[in-house]
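Open question from group meeting: does this chain pack into something compact, or does most of it stay loose? Before anyone orders reagents, we agreed to write out a predicted structure and look at it together. Recording both the input and the output here so the notebook holds the full record.
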Amino acid sequence: MGMFKNFLLKQVMKSKMKGVPEAEQEKIMAMVEKNPDFFKRIGEEIEAKKKSGKSELEATMEVMRKNQAELQKLL
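Structure tokens returned:
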């Protein structure tokens, strides 16, 4: 089941990253694979902010700023 879930995650990510160079896509996917719980938490935080009435961009920017230090460590 883990391989199937991983495959689906990669397909969804690729569809969201159209226009992003292949090398960058691979780098992002590797970060997500190494730290799935961190990125799951970020996704949940973004969804919660969207449900409270913020736009997707506004919610994403707010959550990314909050987690900026941890994101920089991953890069």
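Observations to bring back to the group:
Residues 36-51 form the longest helix (16 residues).
Residues 2-74 form one domain.
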